[in-house]
Amino acid sequence: MVSLLLISLLYLGIMLIAAKISEEIFRRIGLVTFVGPILMGILLGNGVFGVIQINEIISFITSLGIVFLLFLAGAEEFNVENRPNANVFLAVILESIIPFSVILVAIYIIGFKNYLILIVPLAMSSAGPLSRMLMDVKISDNRISNLIFQQVILIEIIFVILFAILLKTSEILITIIEIFLVFAFTIMFGRTLAKILEKIEYYFKAREIEFASLIAIILIIGYLAELYKFNSAISAFFLGILLKDYLKDRPELLERLHAFTYGFFEPLFFLGIGLYVTKINASIILFSLLFFSLIIASKFLAGFISSKILNIKGKINGFATSVKGGVDSSLLLTGLTLGYINEFMYSFSILAISLSALIVPLLFQINFKISNKISESKKVKLSQEVIKLQIKPLYASCEENLRSVISKISERGVRGIVVVNYENKPLGYVSIQTLLEIDPELYESTKACEVPLDEVPIEYDNVKVIDLLRKFRETEKPVIAIINKEGVLVTTVYERELARFLISF
């Protein structure tokens, strides 16, 4: 008789190669790649052929996949260029309540138990697939994409927190306090943990130690979370947020973590999602189509309504905020493995999410191309308002250190950057010349507001393109800050970028 370890090695080898092949097939036909391994898992598992059986080792590897995927989600997806305003928060409230309520009513009528846990992954949006979807249509760096991403990442955070609370409904107050402490720890000790990793890196002078230390911290935090009755995957998500800046400054380390996670754990995780699906029958297909329809209809409606608040095209925002297939899948599998939902509920739900992950990007691309063709017929006029050009803003907060300021300036290739206060109102700008006069050893400890700021020209958001060009000639400044009636920064405009933008049209 073959031992559990040996058969698991065989299973893992089959799973890994099958997952990568299915990813490549889906990539070549222009579909969302991670759905391929899920469908392959359904075929190989009990859903269809039953070639691979879930066991303790496969389950453990899958659970590790959830931990590392959510860690990277926290480190990379939680990235909003501008501070969300009141309209964004109002949009997020609508986009959370409407899908949650629609799916709640449907599940309540059907009569499922523990339905609250099931609602969260079905009703939420996922920022990871959204990033790829926006890059596919080349709008990952303008006002529209930023507003869309703000909505989706806030929805994702809200539902992750809600999921953590619902895991322990009998101890809601304790769970809320735990989550509050996690956020407090993130704010108070985030840099301390990063400093510890930096010290390890400095003393050992070995890249492998730095990588091993990071992996060790993720695993240890996961252990402590489970020890104190908090989900390890969700704790990894918050840990990723905590170490976001640390990883951003170390692209080589982040690249290793990508290879470690996306090269091994991600394909196994998504194929493992399919393995947990029970035998496919008419009931599962019917329920998956029903909830797929509810997900698309409720989330599109919420996004369409919210678009009026944010001044974004309705269909674009509706489909973009409906994107699925990332953290939601992880939470769904967590709910199954912890025993909160049964295999039938899991099976139709993962199929509904997979269908959404396939269909939504296609609908988004179709509507974006139609919208883009219409907008291409409109020429940019010098008499139009600058805000309508949707130029990506660039600024630094007063509390950011000079290392962060230099990083932003270098990334954009500009000669200065606007500095804002806690109310997001411009105070001035830091020029390259000013930075060159400061000792590089002080970059980490010196804040943006602690250096001499040059006066930044300011215009309101209804300023015309022609007037802004005149302003650049008059002031000879590298950047102009665009504000609203309340004095809050809306965007920043650089003369060279403005000229390049106009030439492209």
Automatic annotation (TrEMBL):
A cellular component term, taken from the record's GO annotations: membrane
Keywords assigned: Antiport, CBS domain, Ion transport, Membrane, Sodium, Sodium transport, Transmembrane, Transmembrane helix, Transport
SUPFAM superfamilies for the chain: CBS-domain pair
Membrane topology per record: Multi-pass membrane protein
Source organism: Saccharolobus solfataricus (strain ATCC 35092 / DSM 1617 / JCM 11322 / P2)
Main location as per UniProt: membrane
Span of domain CBS: 386-445
Keyword DNA repair: no
Location relative to the cell: Membrane
A Gene Ontology biological process term: sodium ion transport
Name under which the protein is recorded: Na(+)/H(+) antiporter
Pfam families to which the protein is assigned, alphabetical: CBS (PF00571), Na_H_Exchanger (PF00999)
GO molecular function: antiporter activity
Highest taxon listed in the record's lineage: Archaea
Record-annotated membrane-spanning stretches: 6-22, 29-51, 57-75, 87-109, 115-135, 147-166, 172-194, 230-247, 259-278, 284-304, 344-364
